[in-house]
From TrEMBL, chains A, B:
Alphabetical list of PROSITE patterns matching this protein: NUDIX (PS51462), NUDIX_BOX (PS00893)
Organism: Streptosporangium oxazolinicum
Protein's UniProt name: NUDIX domain-containing protein
Coiled-coil blocks: none
InterPro entries: Nudix_hydrolase, NUDIX_hydrolase-like_dom_sf, NUDIX_hydrolase_CS, NUDIX_hydrolase_dom, WH-like_DNA-bd_sf, WH_DNA-bd_sf, WHD_NrtR
Ranges of residues in domain Nudix hydrolase: 19-149
Amino acid sequence: MDESEFLAGYDPRAYPAVAVTVDVVALTIRGGGLRVLLIRRAEQPHAGLWALPGGFIRPGEDLPQAAARELAEETGLSDRVHIEQLASYGAPERDPRMRIVSISYLAFAPDLPDPRAGSDAADASWHPVDKLPELAFDHDRILAHGLERARGKLEYTPLATAFAGERFTISELRGVYETVWGVSLHAGNFHRKILSVPGFVESTGETTESGGARGGPRAKLYRAGDARLLHPALLRPAREEQIR
Amino acid sequence: MDESEFLAGYDPRAYPAVAVTVDVVALTIRGGGLRVLLIRRAEQPHAGLWALPGGFIRPGEDLPQAAARELAEETGLSDRVHIEQLASYGAPERDPRMRIVSISYLAFAPDLPDPRAGSDAADASWHPVDKLPELAFDHDRILAHGLERARGKLEYTPLATAFAGERFTISELRGVYETVWGVSLHAGNFHRKILSVPGFVESTGETTESGGARGGPRAKLYRAGDARLLHPALLRPAREEQIR
DNA sequence: CTTTGTTATTCTCATACTGAGATTGTCTCA
DNA sequence: TGAGACAATCTCAGTATGAGAATAACAAAG
């Protein structure tokens, strides 16, 4: 049955109202770890619990636009931020008050400033993803989905450069992978791999001003290349448990 | 801003109504090609145009449930069908009458019977994806997205077995890949690869009743294995144009 | 200023995976 | 009965990966 044919025969307002929101899983790397932006709920239900930033779509506003707006309301930033649709959630009882369908978005950004709590939120801050508080609604599921998507996209897209600054060293890029995947990678092999994937990074010809904090030579600086897909991909160490 | 805080301060019914539908991209292999289930619209707007099957979500009905129902209404089938969420579309003007947010689902099945047109549809049939009619709304975009997703999932999941029957030969499985990807694959290498990926297929110990229609020995029959991910993945021949 | 420890970068080497082509033997059809 | 089709297996070269080591530049402590 097509939606419009349905519309022709039925009045949608005869149905219980459905509300559509966007929720944003915004990830960044801070303090050596992967963090997600959460806001503390000021109102019932789940008042006092942390939740993903999000809100109703507005008339005339497209979905990605709504997600970018919600993110900007909390972080003040909208450019330099990669944002993409994640998934939608619409279980009838996911919000106790009414039927709410949520379109979730995934956002990545280099180290962002501290968020400012919106007028409607009691608090807003970046939380380490490995030490999360209890979340409101089904936001734990949405976040888990977002993390898994982010980890996967690191494999076959240059997404990691979106977590790094304008210019970065190979080691910094490796740090992104290690942080997001939660593993440690072989420095030599990683270096070889990054430089051998066409279009992943391009040299700036510059180096860091000084060596690392604890020694070592100055590292060459790179910027993101023009590849949209990594080929061959940079695969995570095999996770046997995930295969079956 | 969280959705519930918003709710506390604003009455969503004060906003123009938003309707939520599911649309299904149902793919199967028929007549040697990849085909998608389309229904012909009986009502305005876009009356007479072909469209993806879909319709409003019902109160108390979860999203995947709604998608399965819509598919079953057209095909009569609900088991043996793999179904997964694809993406959501909510551009303000995508339906001329009101704000409609559509959650799209992707379904795969072995060769299915001819669809029966729902009472609301003028016609329903399987269309070759490489020879499509003009589609209603933004359904061409949704379908393109679904095809790309299906092609990608063939690489790293055992999805191809969902297009094959209960038991299948390696050659039939290769035919699935060749049909969906639109390429021809090296039979020997494909054979080696399939048998070397743990859990992709398992032997039934049986063979086909006779050789191929034009000769050749009887082929061994396999069934789908227990792997959920293919490791290593079965990658498409490199598509340079898609990398940049 | 010298020593020690760290880190960037490059190499080596063994192993695994892939693409291309060829071989062997079974089976259908003319 | 012969020709062609096709399943299944094998070979070989090229490429990619994992692990470890070597080289050299640099910071910080003595």
